[in-house]
Amino acid sequence: MTETLTGAPTVRAPAAAPTLTGPGLLTVLLAAALPLVDFFIVNVALPAIGADLHASEAVLELVVAGYGVTYAVLLVLGGRLGDLFGRRRLFIAGMAAFGVTSLACGLAPGAWSLVAARAAQGASAALMLPQVLATIQATTTGGRRARAMSLYGATAGLSMVIGQILGGVLVAADIAGTGWRSIFLVNVPVVVLGLVLAVRRVPDTRSRHPEPVDVPGTVLLAVALLALLAPLTEGRATGWPLWTWVSLAVFPVAAWAFYAVERRADRLGRTPLLPPSLFAAPSLRRGLLIIVPFSLGFSGFMFVIALSLQQGAGLGPVAAGLALAPMAVSFLLVSLAGPRLIARFGTRVVATGSVLQGIGVLLIALTVWRDWPHLGLGTLLPGAAVAGAGQALQLPNLMRIVLAEVPSARAGVGSGVLTTTQQASLALGVATLGALFLGLIPHLGMRDALLVALVTQLGAILVTGLLSLRLPREVG
To answer: N or C: which terminus of the chain has fewer CB atoms within 10 Å of its end residue's CB?
Structure first.
């Protein structure tokens, strides 16, 4: 008799959750820096671009706005596509496109081709950036996530300041006669390095239950953001023609229609582009409200200070950029202590940061009032350093707070909402505070116009501080 032995059935262990290692985190943080550096790097280079390409003021504003608007409009869609098709795949595709469009910007033969290349660059950034936050959310937990989010916030804040400094240095260096073009061409080798690292070090994640793209929501969000941002960025330079007022009138209608469509889809159990139920989390809802005035005031400040230092104080691009170096240094040093401070003192750290930022901006305003036009690194150092420390206590911690209660399955949506809010606010800051500043110069002179802009930013900082008092005391 032959006895047949049958082995016990093999039980496969569930696949281990992907983990973001140190080199992988470095890679996604590099990608997070690129779009923000490129938003601010052009501020110092605008005079050189205008002179070389014979561009009008309205076209130069489009160089800034074309990037910011497409970036803001497509961010939430970029997050959803990452959930659907895989975040690593979209991350690599977006980074590659960012390198190609950066090359197109650097080789642009004329002003309008530069505007088109910048718009395409913004679209590629919108494909890449949401995957950064979503990957961090999906591959880290606990203390590792807190540290990664703090590093992300620090990277974002530093990128905004360093972009302006780097722009001045590159324009003045005139590498191989490239002039302002080097501010875009420098991205190409960085992207090549990032792609090599991404292929090897960034884990692949996606939503376990991906939903199809919400076409009506995507279209309505794009219409609403375009209707708001396009006239505000171009209105003053073009003399506020009829289309700007029509566009502004369309904005509330499109925004209401977007909300109604998204709420209906959410109630029917679908997954809309921006689920209203996501805002049930107090940390996300209140954190986003704070990021709006913070980003609006900060981007407006960076725009007007760049113009004031070059066109009013007579500084060259390097000196104008380096005048903000103390802000970057203090931001870096203070942001490293963020996780420990939040763990010990809770979200009151954010309110403290708004107080410090306000003191810093006030010191800058007093320096402008007293020393104009003799401004530079030495005179602006105290105010810039204090303001940078205050910003470091706010931005990295706010980003962590906003995403604290977002589940991993909705990481792409949550990161898209966060980055869209930040980017739209940055674009609004340049449009509104920049328009106020430029509109006041003929009547008040540049010094007093700058002082009005700084006082306006102090108002935004006050709003930020008051709103931060309503944050949940502890961070998950």
So the answer is: N
What's domain 22-204+273-468's superfamily in CATH?
MFS general substrate transporter like domains (1.20.1250.20)
Backbone angles phi, psi at 207, to 5 degrees: -70, 140
- Domain ranges in the chain are 22-204+273-468, 214-272
Contact 48, 317 (CB under 8 A): yes
* Number of neighbouring beta carbons within 10 Å of residue 352: 18
Closest C-alpha to 474, from 348, 355, 338: 348
- For the chain, the first-to-last Cα distance in angstroms comes to 65
Per-residue tens of pLDDT for the chain, all 476 residues: 444 444 444 444 445 567 777 888 899 999 989 988 888 888 778 888 988 998 887 788 788 878 888 888 888 888 888 888 888 999 999 999 999 999 999 999 999 999 999 999 999 999 998 888 888 888 887 778 778 877 887 888 788 778 878 888 888 888 888 889 999 999 999 999 999 999 988 888 877 766 677 888 888 988 998 898 888 877 877 888 999 999 999 999 999 999 999 889 888 877 787 788 778 778 888 888 899 999 999 888 888 888 888 888 888 878 887 888 888 888 888 887 877 888 788 888 899 999 999 999 999 999 999 999 888 888 999 999 999 999 989 888 888 788 777 776 666 677 778 888 888 888 888 888 888 888 898 899 999 999 999 999 999 999 999 998 888 776 65
Query: Using CA atoms, how far apart are residues 77 and 72, in angstroms rounded to an integer?
Result: 10
CA 281 to chain centroid, in Å, comes to: 22
Q: What is the pTM of this model?
A: 0.81
